[in-house]
UniProtKB/TrEMBL annotation:
Superkingdom of the organism of origin: Bacteria
Enzyme class: hydrolase
NCBIfam families: BGL (TIGR03356)
EC number: 3.2.1.21
InterPro entries: GH, Glyco_hydro_1, Glyco_hydro_1_AS, Glyco_hydro_1_beta-glucosidase
Lineage: Bacteria, Bacillati, Actinomycetota, Actinomycetes, Propionibacteriales
Transmembrane segments annotated in the record for this chain: none
Active-site residues annotated for this sequence: 356 (nucleophile)
Reaction catalysis annotation: Hydrolysis of terminal, non-reducing beta-D-glucosyl residues with release of beta-D-glucose
Gene3D superfamilies cross-referenced by the UniProt entry: Glycosidases
Protein name: Beta-glucosidase
Length: 461
């Protein structure tokens, strides 16, 4: 029996982010970012870890490209470090920083791999944070300038661009919960940062009308635990999903969100024209999916849930984790990805890309030169199956990227939680890379004839 031919092949890829892999934080004129500052503060990152060395990918770009090429993937998603390109956030351009990404892009293209660039994966120049960071409208203006500089240099070779990665994390974990850089803890600050992040995205759209421009969101299916949790679940959905999707699709914030987030009714923050600029500003949506969210109602007098701070204004929130979990404690539920893709396609009508999916696993040790990470293979196989079901149900999903190529700096978790297809030995001076069983498994999936190889430019219209 021959399988029905897909209208287009699903592009397969692997993803990374600058601060998590590059190291070389003081090289070639790079300025400090908020993650340098944050991880240097005692108690912020598990084990006192930081990205000073990370995977040393800044110096080992050829090794990374060879690993990507060895997978045979269609595409590689990476991020550009703003403080390497504009060490002062705006103004003076550091060409050595741009040279690095040019080397990477040219190497990928020579290897037959499509580069997919993310402009902001959380490494904000510290000088901009000192002027208010994402609480300041001027940061959105600086972002547009930065996007233009990078696009000017690489736009002839990079066809698929994303502005932000997971603005929910940048805004709410960074400014409201304080568990990510810059570590601020003010409920209203999360909403302000969210608006300015979206504004930076929307203005970039206007500044780069020719670019095939998307935004990467960590949307999540929100499944209330019981009928009495419907209301808190709606609040979680507002802050995790609708605060991004509603402006993109409708050019509006919805009533419930405005009730939770009165900041978004402040005419000094949300100015005439802002929401109009956001409407229709994405050509595609990237979805990073790891786990569903199961809100519950907290018992009266109970302790606030540790993640309450990331959902400011959602009173009485509790969160339940069911079933099997990965090593980072996140529930494994591939049906969440299937539902999310179908639902997001219905809501937006836009092409979708799974820009991240993967698992932190405990079976990640090198034994006799091998890493037998069967838990990760199971996770990835089941989630790829969910993508295919969503495609058959009509969701326009163009690509699937595994998070991540290398074991790397996992933000507040430091190096303790590993998501890589490739093991990195942090005790060896050369940071020895060992492809895991999941690396070889994924290479087989890419080569499988039923999947087909996506052509270069697949993510473009
Ligand atoms: C995403 N949370 O981060 C990022 O895009 C990646 O850089 C990261 O390595 C990956 O997922 C795995 O964590 C998140 O606490 C970090 O809810 C933390 C959270 C969510 C996403």
């Amino acid at each position: 029996m021959t399988a029905a031919r897909d209208p287009f092949p699903l592009a397969l890829g692997v993803a990374t982010a600058s601060y998590q892999i590059e190291g070389a934080v003081r090289e070639d004129g790079r300025g400090p970012s908020i993650w340098d500052t944050f991880s240097a503060e005692p108690g912020r990152v598990r084990g006192g870890d930081d990205g000073v060395d990370a995977c040393d990918s800044y110096h080992r770009v050829d090794d990374d490209i060879a690993l990507v090429e060895g997978l045979g993937v269609d595409a590689y998603r990476f991020s550009v470090a703003w403080p390497r390109v504009l060490p002062e956030g705006r103004g003076r351009v550091e060409t050595r920083g741009l040279d690095h990404y040019e080397r990477l892009v040219d190497g990928l293209l020579a290897a037959g791999v499509e580069p997919v660039a993310t402009l902001y994966h959380w490494d904000l120049p510290q000088v901009l944070e000192d002027e208010g960071g994402w609480l300041a409208r001027s940061t959105a203006e600086a972002f547009v300038e930065y996007a233009g500089v990078v696009h000017e240099r690489l736009g002839d070779r990079v066809t698929s661009w994303a502005t932000h990665n997971e603005p929910w994390c940048a805004a709410y974990l960074g400014y409201a919960a304080g568990v990510h850089a810059p570590g601020r803890r003010e409920a209203g600050a999360g909403h302000r940062a969210a608006h300015h992040l979206m504004l930076g995205h929307a203005w970039t759209r206007r500044a780069l009308p020719g670019a095939h421009l998307g935004i990467v969101l960590n949307l999540a299916p929100v499944w209330p635990e019981s009928p009495d949790a419907a209301d808190v679940a709606d609040g979680v959905d507002a802050i995790r999903n609708r605060v991004w999707l509603d402006p993109l699709v409708d050019g509006a914030y919805d009533e419930r969100l405005l009730a939770i987030a009165p900041e978004l009714t402040d005419p000094g923050l949300v100015r005439p024209g802002d929401l109009e600029a956001m409407k229709g500003s994405a050509d595609w949506i990237g979805i990073n999916y790891y786990t569903p969210i199961r809100p519950a109602r907290r018992a009266d007098g109970g302790e606030p849930h540790p993640e309450q701070g990331a959902y400011p204004g959602v009173e009485g929130l509790d969160l339940v984790v069911r079933g099997p979990r990965t090593d980072i404690g996140w529930e494994i539920e591939p049906r969440g990805l299937e539902e999310l893709l179908v639902e997001t396609h219905r809501r937006t009508g836009l092409p979708l890309v799974v820009t991240e999916n993967g698992a932190a696993c405990a079976d990640d040790q090198v034994v006799d030169g091998r890493v037998d990470d069967t838990d990760r293979i199971d996770y990835l196989r089941d989630h790829l199956g969910a993508v295919e079901r969503a495609r058959r149900a009509g969701a326009d999903v163009r690509g699937y990227f595994v998070w991540t190529l290398l074991d790397n700096f996992e933000w507040a978790e430091g190096y303790a939680k590993t998501f890589g297809l490739v093991h990195v030995d942090r005790s060896s001076p050369s940071l020895t890379r060992t492809p895991k069983a999941s690396y070889h498994w994924f290479a087989e999936q890419v080569a499988a004839p039923a999947r087909g190889r996506g052509a270069a430019g697949l993510l473009s219209p």
